[in-house]
Structure formats: C-alpha cells, structure tokens
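Quick board copy: two proteins, each given as sequence then tokens.
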Amino acid sequence: MTGCGGQAASSSGEADRVANNGPAGGAAAVSAGHGSTTPTGTPLYTRLITSSAVGGTGQALTAMLAGATYRSATGVWVGCEGTAATAVYRLSGDFAKLTGLLGLQPHTPADLQVRVSIVVDGGTRLSVVLTRNGQPQSISIPVADARILTVSALATVGQCAPAAAPYGAIGAASLT
C-alpha cells in the first residue's frame, strides 16, 4: 500500500516489529531542552480504545524527534487520502494533564505538511501544522475531569509514501 495510511512491505522480522509498533530494545537518549525521553506518568498509549488508521496510530513505538530517541513514544499515523487518521483514548477523569513532544519523524517525506489536532471531550485543545524539518511542539494540555481524548492527523500539503511506522509521534506522552 502507498500513502501515510499504508505500510511498506517487509521481509524481516525487525521491520515487521517496527511496522506493528513493537518497542525496540536499548537505552533511551536524553536531549537537552526536551526533558525526559520516557513518559513520567501514565503513557498515553496505554489508554488507547480505538483508532481509524490502517497503521499503528496510538500505539507504543520508538520514535526519533529533534535528534532524540523516544523509546516509549505514542505513534501518530497520518491520514493521506483526505480523511484524518484518529486515535481515541479513555481518560475517565483520572488525569490532570497531557505532556510530551509532538513532531514528525525523519522518514516523513520532505514536502509533507500535517495538521495534528488534540481534542478533549469534543473541544479542540491544540491544532498545529508540522513539517519534517520544523521543530517539534512541546505540549502541556489540561485534561482535568476529561473522559475522552482524540488525536487526529491529516496531510494537508505534499505527497505520502509507503511507511513501516507512523510519520508522527508524541515523545514521552504522559498523563499525570
């Protein structure tokens, strides 16, 4: 399949594990200015209840953002055929804040622009356009008493290509 929602075919077990967003081993790198590269609270991906993407959106993966490796990132698949890819998380009023670093990984096509929105109980809390060469966005979103959080991503400019892993990720995505 092609496009952001399609996965590249692979013949190795490692590529299959990456395509399914399985974690890779090793120690996490720490990048100055971005804090921890691992979640400090409950990882967002542990609260996933559903997704609309063909790929592994909302699942744990190892991501590279701003030169740092995030071993427990939350994947953000990009909808490339005119419909946003979404991931829905159950918060059940258990948390006060979502924090992390939202960005696109190095394998994202150079000309692609992606609108990522974070919606909490039906209200948009963040809407940002990301590019591969742009700086990732630190996020700190209040979620006190929130029941449902939705992350959606849509390619708005450029062409997608086959990918074994999501273009986008939230590094150290933590619910506290």
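And the next:
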Amino acid sequence: MEAPLNADSPLDPPATTSAQRRYWVGPRHLAGDDGRLYDAVADTLTGLGWTSLTIIRGRQEPDEEPEDRQVLRSTVLHISPDTLRWAQWILADEPFYLGDLPVAWQISARGDVGSPLAQWSAYFTPEVPGEVLVDFVTALDARDQPVFPFGGPEAVVDAVTAHGWIRDVDQPATAAIDPTFATHISLGDVPSLIQDADPRTLTKEADEREPAGWQAWAEPVLGARCLWAASFSSSTPDDLVAAFAGSLSSTAPVLRRLLPDSTQDLLLRAPAT
C-alpha cells in the first residue's frame, strides 16, 4: 500500500545518527539519491552475481616512498558474469561532467566478448534516485543481448506519459516533461565525451548531425543548477531507456532520510513507521 503523502509534514533537521527518521516522499524524480547512490546500485549488482573490482592508477616519482605515491584515478568496476556489461563508479575519479554536474555511474555494454569497446554507454550524476538506477541495471542484466535494439523511441515517451507526464508540443514522439515542469526527457543532441560505437559519431561531416541519444534532467528552479542529469549514447536500446523512464516517473513513493535542498518544498512526504 502506498503511504499518503503530505507536503506540510515537517522534516527532521539533518541528523548525524543512524536513528534519523525516514519519510515516504514523492515524486520520485525529485527525491534525490538519499546519499546512497553507490550502495543502492552496487548491492543490486552483487545480488545479480556481478563481480566488483577496484582499479587504482597512480604515479610514483624516483626515490619516492610507496606511501607517497600519487593516486591519479580510482574506479570501482562491476562486471556481469558474461562480461558483456559493466558499471563503473567514477565519482572519485578525475572529474567528468554532464553540464555542471559530475558523473557518478557509467554503465556500458558490448555485443561481443572479443571487442574491448562498449557499443553504448549511459551516464548518471549524483541525485538520480537509486531506485531508478536499480531498475535500469536489473533490466540490463535480464537481457540476453545487451546491445540489440528493441522497440523504438515511442516506448520511452509512452513509459512516462503512462504516469501522467506531458508530451512536448513540438516533439510529441520524442520528448516529455513531468506535470510540475521540473523534469525532462528527450531524444536529441548528445553531450561531448559520451562514448558510443556508432561509426557515424566519428565520421560525420561538419554540416551533419550526430546520431541522437536520450537525455534526462531535473531542473527544479528554472535557470538554476540542475538537480541531476542522465545521458544515454545513441546506441542505447530504447527499451532500456524506457525501463529508466518508467521507474523515474513512477508514482510510488520512495523512502528517504535526506532530501535535496532544491526540492524540499516540491515534495510530498509522510513519516515512515
């Protein structure tokens, strides 16, 4: 049973103990990650049988003591049993940004174990709700062929409009916005540095457009910094993006101890008992 939510239910101030109260909150797409984005996804991947590795790259100067070695990059890498899909927690690495937000998770897949390159990649910043990424990686894990396309763009828009989101007037088949006009999902230009194996991303002429990819973001205050952002390279199967979109737009409340400052006034909430 879904908990009744009340926008006027007071929140406890930030607590430093594990006894901090929890709340059922909604809408999900504005609820943030509760400070558990790594744990939520990593625990799910471990439960699915994925292997985790920690990769550390560094530099040691001549005559430098080992404890003084400069660590340049460290990544927690999770690999599926068939090695066709992997997820990297890269927040602690050298910064990689979507807009002005650092990327936390990069999730990729390839079609052949003989290829070292990802066919597609998806990127997620902090404050993407953990429940949404859990549903995305679960859908990815369940696929026999992680790169084969299923469905089409309409599946993504249908997934959010089924939960009350509104089709974009100018792009009704490829873009939608939530009823509060704070969160968007659309098929369009892909940000720079997004990795994809489609050769058209490398061979396009100057006057040609790159293949489009799905982008999603939450902008609670128009013109202010986004709460979170997600980017899917052009070859990401639409049905996997639809799994992300359907979970993102779900009307089921989520449990939270911590709420983003920018959305506290926009969230409905009820104490969890």
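Board note added afterward: Confidence is low (pLDDT under 50) at residues 6-18.
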